[in-house]
Prior knowledge:
Blueprint: H1 2-27, H2 36-47, H3 51-62, H4 69-81, H5 85-95, H6 101-116, H7 122-128, E1 135-136, E2 141-142
Antiparallel strand pairs: 1-2
Amino acid sequence: MNLAILIATTAIVQTQPLQNEVGAAAREGYGYSLTESQISLLSTQAMAGSAEAADRLGNFYWMRGIPDRENTMRWAQIGAENGDPESEFRMYQLLQNSADTRNQLRALFWLKRAAADNYLGAKAILAECPDITTKGAPPNSHCFGPDAD
């Protein structure tokens, strides 16, 4: 029992400086450029549960000249799992155009989560596209699937 407390205490003490460094890295600027050391630091923090760090990484890969969809998806999913509304919405964006109905359902799931978390226009989109079979505006426009706007 005492060993478990010691291990837990050691883990908390070891991650506290890391959390402070990630917060500082995230506050340095909200540009989408990251150094290799920032990517490494933010990756570690995101994997430990930081929504802010995962969001920062997701934006880094999404906002490049040519978006890196694989890394964007990885960090958006981790950010969404960590409770970040922007990452939840990014997951919706990444999955909504899929031809796979299961991915469309998951996109709707993430859209609902983003709307529940009051992320920007998520509520308006959800009102227009409440399920994966809904056709949205303009006429004959699909909300989900390969023909989605």
